[in-house]
Amino acid sequence: MVSIDEIRQAAARVRPIARVTPMIDATSIAGRPLFLKCESLQPGGAFKIRGAYNMVSQLTDEQRRRGVVTFSSGNHGQAMALAARELGAPAVVVMPTTAPPIKIEGARSYGAEVIFAGTTSIERRTRAEEEAATRGLTMVPPFDHEWIIAGQGTLGLEILEQRPDVQTILVPVGGGGLLAGVAAATKQTRPDVRVVGVEPAGAAAMKASLEAGQAVTLPKTESVADGLMPVRPGDITFAHAKEFVDEVVTVSDDQIIDAMLWLFTSAKIVAEPSGAATVGAALNGAARGVTVAIISGGNVGLDRLEELRKRRQESASREP
Question: Catalytic annotation on 187?
Answer without folding.
Answer: no
